Amino acid sequence: MKKYFIMLAMLLAAWIFFHHPKADWQGQLAPGEPLQISNDLPSPWIYKDFTITARAKYHIKAVILSKHHYWGAETEDTLSSYDLALGWGPMSDAKVINQLDISQDGRWYNYHWSKDPPIDPNEIISHSANNHIIAGNQDVLEEVKRFKMYDVVALEGYLVDIQSNKEDWSWHTSLSRTDTGGGSCEVFWVTNALLIP
Q1: What whole-number distance in Å separates Cα of residue 27 and Cα of residue 93?
Q2: Quick one: which of 32, 72, 97, 172 has the fewest CB in 10 Å?
Q3: What is the Cα–Cα distance from 134 to 20, expressed in whole angstroms?
Q4: With 50 as the cut, is the pLDDT of residue 14 above it?
Q5: How far is CA 179 from the centre of its chain?
Q6: Is the pLDDT confidence value at 17 over 50?
Q7: Domains of the chain, each with CATH number or no CATH
């Protein structure tokens, strides 16, 4: 009997981990494009053992397509403990999202469809992105911790490049919404994070 309950608990835990509830709203919850401004930026600043260089001011309202928590010993993990896959425009439409299998792992955001893509794949690329979130303060970190799948959120801060002051290591942000592959994620220093009711 004990083995039965252990197996049942393991199956339940696996279901909770891998199950993705269906989105249930109508229309696009975040129809606007992200705002990126490349002037009037602050001077580089020091954070822990790193130099942070702002490349653009950034503001985005989007649906959380997936959220992944990183707690390893990699340099990226010590800087950014959360990645958020965000969708806006057509990628904030439940009818589109429900036809995609969305996941995150190893600092990547992945999506797949079973038959035909729900929209032009170029629209998926240009209206969703993986964001490496660096909390600019404790309030931001606590808010990001509370975020969950399908929340509508507003985030603002800076897209940044990071250079280690102790070793030959750097991390560079994307400045485009249409790139793919390695280097296409936003490295996002977030100064304000808000859940949109």
Answers
A1: 5
A2: 72
A3: 25
A4: no
A5: 15
A6: no
A7: 31-196 (2.40.50.140)
